[in-house]
Amino acid sequence: MQAEARFAAGLLDPSAPVPEQVRDQAPRRYAVYRNNVTVGLVKALEANFPAVRRLLGEAYFAGLARAFAQRHPPESPLLFHYGAAFPAYLAAQDDLSGFPYLADVARVEQGWRRAYHAADVQVLEAADLALAADRLMTLRFKPHPATFVLASSYAVHAILSANRGGDGVVADPARPQAVLITRPAHDVIVTALPAEQHAFLAALIDGAQLAEAAERGFAAGESFDLAGTIRLMVEAGVFQSLITQDGT
Amino acid sequence: MSNTSTRRVFTAAMLATAVTAAISASAVTSSSPAAAAEKEKCFGVAMAGKNDCAAGAGTTCAGTSKVDFQGNSWKYVEKGTCTSMMIDGGRKGSLEPLTRDLPA
Amino acid sequence: MKSRRIPRSAHDLRLPIFPTPLRSGAGFKPEHLGDILADARKVGFFEVHAENYMGDGGAPHAMLDRLRADYPVFLHGVAMSIGGEGPLDKAHLARFRRLVDRYEPHVVSEHLAWSTHDTAYFNDLLPVPYTRAVLARVVDHIDEVQNALGRTLLLENPSTYVTFDSSEMSETQFILEVARQSGCELLLDVNNVFVSATNHDYAPEDYLADFPLHLVREIHLAGHATDQDDAGHTLLIDAHDRPVAAEVWNLYEKVIAVRGPIPTLIEWDNDVPEWSVLKSEADAADVILSRHASDAHPELRHAS
């Protein structure tokens, strides 16, 4: 493993010496590989976190992404998955402590991409519910592989929308907001969820029975619209199927 | 926020009413193939460069002509101007002033 | 009640079997799909990077299904790390196999390079010294890939920016020996030949004279960027970000004159232009291919 390890050591570290096996050549030559890797990973993070990039600006984001890549090089060539540790990395930056919503925005972007590439699975249909009318109380649901929910202390849905094609202006970022991501066909759908809807859907996604999840919804807010949320759940494709008695 | 005195206990009948309402509404809005195609705005035609259709990073077998300066200048971007977000009222995206706005 | 299912994909349909396109093709970019499908004049084929279609599902696969219904698709891996010291990633190999099974690509190719060390993936094509020890492991790795995929692999010559004193043979000798021992065939990247020859001070014509052209089943063409090293020596970067250079077109025509027409890919991966610009590069290759159409060797009409 020696030659490869020595060549790899400086690929993400500009302060590392040129590897001994190519040290007799102009340093700029080895630096081409370092540059290709570094620029490539910065571009990968830009592509994977477009809203965070817009929020931070190109120069700041590039610097942060480079520092992240040095510490967390990808472990898979599937670069559309790259950056799983990026939200936590953002949260740990002292300089960004005034922008505590960034990590959750990054988590939502991660969820967005996972949904985009998730398996093609049919969604639960209204007819499936109609057929189970005799056992509604105990119904449980199998989440669709694209489904992602996040409840944030910040207005993540508003911030994301404003920074993925919007005008970048957010009325009140310091308010709690939950977001639902689904992909019933090929397009990813991002939905803002009131707290009661989030409580209901998060419980169902965790495997709770329908009656229990409904109770959680009402516990989160008296105005909970149960019928409307069930309709949203079917139309957005949150679930792929009912879980039958034998647990499949 | 609810309190325990208003906590609901569900009956199968109440749940059935809600599910029936949801199903009938879904049936009405259920998408025709044409409506489904219209909804597929990111698939197929004009998805490039649209951030709301961003597929994420791809691989390359090319090098790059762009040179990364590999410095640490990002550290010196003035603290407090780290996000471009504008909050109504003219503040930049830092939430730090907000905590100071709170009554003591 | 009308169902809201994932539209049925071409996935379950029989795929068309196309003859070897003795024509030019283009690297597929999803943003071009609409223009490609609306274009009355078709290119010969499309090539995709395997890794970009290793997600579980969604739009990428739906787009590739659509493309595969109309065109031969060539599958080009960038991350197998065939030149790597460590063992091949079995999970990656399995993912690659699923793509080959699903899309029945006309051609499957990979690089003479490495990109994985321990658990880290470096998103570049890193160089290997041309030694007997490296030769043995490259042959073993190609053997493993060909067995796992059930296909003959095309191996691509690299663009390099450094050389290794430890090399015991030339790049062309190394590649010929790899092909002889593994049974793989070759993908000749003419731009890579020009880039490496310029960077390391040899004549690209000499390289091509030594290259086993009879094993070449596909050609790659791309644009490169010009830089300089610390000593003022020209350093070309294989950037795939502009039109193919005039010198590379000249070399390409010399290869085709000797070899006869074979599928030729235009790669454009950075600063990707409109479809019409990429298409015009492919058209330029087609002009050269048709100029030498009568040179076609009958036995070369069938790619593996």
Structural notes for this entry:
- The complex is a heterotrimer of chains A (248), B (104) and C (304).
- Chain A contains eleven helices and six strands.
- Chain A has helices spanning 2-9, 27-48, 50-56, 58-71, 86-91, 102-117, 126-131, 156-163, 195-205, 210-220, 226-236, and strands at residues 140-143, 148-152, 169-170, 177-182, 189-193, 239-243.
- In chain A, the strands form two sheets. Chain A has a three-stranded antiparallel beta sheet.
- The mean pLDDT of chain A is 93.
- Chain B has a two-stranded antiparallel sheet.
- Chain C is α/β, with parallel strands linked by helices.
- Chain C has one domain (21-296): Divalent-metal-dependent TIM barrel enzymes (TIM Barrel, Alpha-Beta Barrel), CATH 3.20.20.
- Chain C contains nine helices and twelve strands.
- In chain C, the strands form three sheets. Chain C has an eight-stranded parallel barrel. A two-stranded antiparallel ribbon of chain C has the order 5-6.
- In chain C, α2 (59-70) links the parallel β2 (45-49) and β3 (73-76).
- In chain C, α4 (132-149) packs across α5 (171-182).
- The chains are: A mainly alpha (248), B mainly alpha (104), C alpha/beta (304).
- Chains A and B meet through α2, α3, α4, α6 and α7 of A and α1 and β1 of B.
Largest interface: A-B, 83 and 64 residues
CATH topology of chain C: TIM Barrel
User: Oligomeric state of the chains?
Assistant: heterotrimer
CATH class of the largest domain in chain A: Alpha Beta
Q: N-to-C terminal Cα separation of chain A, in Å?
A: 46 Å
Radius of gyration of chain C, whole Å = 19 Å
CATH architecture identity of chain C: Alpha-Beta Barrel
Remind me, CATH topology of the largest domain in chain A? Answer: Outer Surface Protein A, domain 3
Percentage beta strand of chain A: 5-15%
The tally of strands of chain A reads 6
Write out the CATH superfamily name of chain C.
Divalent-metal-dependent TIM barrel enzymes
Strand content of chain C: 15-25%
Q: If helices are DSSP runs of H or I spanning 4 or more residues, what is the number of helices of chain A?
A: 11
The tally of domains of chain C stands at 1
Broad shape of chain A: elongated
Give the C-alpha Rg of chain A: 22 Å
Weakly predicted, low-confidence segments of chain C = 1-5, 298-304
Number of DSSP E strands of chain C: 12
